[in-house]
Amino acid sequence: MKNKNIVEGIYRGTTKKFGFVQIADEEEIYINQKNVGQALNGDTVLVEILPYATGKTKEGRIIQVVKHEKTTLVGFFEKNRNFGFVVPDDKKLGSDIFIPKKYFGKAKNQDKVVVEITKYPEKDKKAEGKIIEVLGKIDEAGVDMLSIIKEYKLPNEFPQKVLKEAKNIQEEISHKELKNRRDFRGEEIFTIDGEDAKDLDDAVQVKKLSNGHYILGVHIADVSHYVKENSKLDLEAITRGTSVYMLDRVIPMLPKELSNGICSLNEGKNRLTLSVIMEIDAKGKVVSSEIAKGIIQVTKRMNYHDVAILLDTPQTDEEKKIFHKYQKYVKHFQLMQELAMILKQRREKRGSLNLDIPEAKVILDKQGIAIDIQKYELNFANEIIEQFMLTANETVAERFFWLEAPFIYRVHEVPEEDKVKELNQYLFSLGYKIHVSHDELRPKAFAEVLEKVKGKKEEALVSNLILRTLKVAKYESENKGHFGIVSKYYCHFTSPIRRYPDLFIHRIISCYLAKDYQVTEEWKQKNYEKATRMAELSSEREKIAQKAERDSIDLKEAEYMQSKIGEIYEGMVSSVTSFGMFVQLENTVEGLVRFEHMGTEYFIYDENRKILIGEKTHKSYALGDKVKIRVIQANKQLREIDFAIVPENETAIKEQ
Question: Which domains does the chain have, with CATH numbers?
């Protein structure tokens, strides 16, 4: 019989040497530094749950490493005469890597390198390795992004066999294919994307009927027509799982011949689609829908900025010029705005969470150096596409749920009770609370708090706190609903160029359409199993992509702030901890103010109230407080920024 006190999980280290073991979806187990053993960050381990605990969290001792996550890692090389060390970029790894002289390769002191681990740590001995690739000098242009690519083992290039298959795809659409598709080419259809977007996988149209209802057409690139199951393109797409967007580059799921070419819904080109045509009433309810194989020819390729101008009164000469250029299409975008507003209001009424979290827009020069950071501005043109895609995704998911089809759903489960209690501790200090009604947690309870903070200084802060409380959305073959958007049925259908789950369900839908919805149980069973595997793999690839994308932003923010050392800014306290507080600036950059940089007074952390209190003056710092800080350190390699509190008699604040 198995010992119930010994469980398997993933070890997550911290920069302070202790860590936690995550047991599936259960609570984390705290691991004291002395009980980490030979585990490194990311390893699968067996942990013995100890009969005592230092706090609320269970405590454990790692007794065995089942599987090491990393076989290679990235870091910078510190060379001595007869040996060296690689200091990993992953500061939570738990060990520098000892490099014997014979394994230096061509590496020189302070080079950024890839090291293969040859021996994992034992007792008091560090891990050992050999250098297998030199990336370049730390400050050499492009080495920083290349380091992230190597750290996460992102597939930076396509194999030649995959590229050959992509180049052999015929662009011309056969007459036979056209006969089997609904022809939308005589209709006015638009893409609305970012100005720099090249992989355009969704196009939209709206019409209004005499009964006051709307017809919403969402046309999605029919990638499954070109990427056949088990082809070289398909197997490579499975491996990648998703496209990765890293500021100065995209690592696409599919080669550019497809992602920017034949699959991209480029203006004026014949393009194959999987189209969802929905009739929506005046209250935003989808009263009927149809899914069809289609062919379109996009009327105009629009961007969010220009559409926003068309929906407003142009002020500047440049805006008037843009308005005049697209004036004949204005009625289309006004109708889109009208419908999007109805759909948004319907969602808000049922409690959908509108998290207003500002994103950083990092501006790079030609060498890839960060020269500015701004808050990414959203407008209602973004909302139009957001609402239309949400509606299409829900419509598709609901139809195939009731068909009991093998499918991949986008699942977002109810947050844990303990997490909500912890959130309420933070919110209480700001004057808010998430109410639990009849022991049931509803999204509307979160939505009500978000509505109360709208337009207030703490809006972004509260949105962030709620985001940290919510569970992470993931892909599953079983439908469990989506808490955040209050949807019983939800999937990702609208981005098959850049997400594998979308491509997978396009194949499922295409098969149902081809067989007039008469599929065999044997076919269903085979694809149920595949859906489960693809959902799990896609969730893992998504996590890796998000980490790489986040690291690229953190790195460039630190790089930008290196040129701001000594400058003074105003910011808001975004988090309070036992070792200091984090402060976020107007441009979204966040830095840490350690206790030793808070002046001459000693501060005490009040965990219950989530505030810092001065021992003598009782001056306090709480979430949402405005503070003046000076930038005192920015470390690009550690991806960390340090601030210091500015004495009240200093008034010079840097304009951002």
Answer: 6-67 (2.40.50.140), 72-138 (2.40.50.700), 160-412+477-553 (no CATH), 417-470 (no CATH), 565-645 (2.40.50.140)
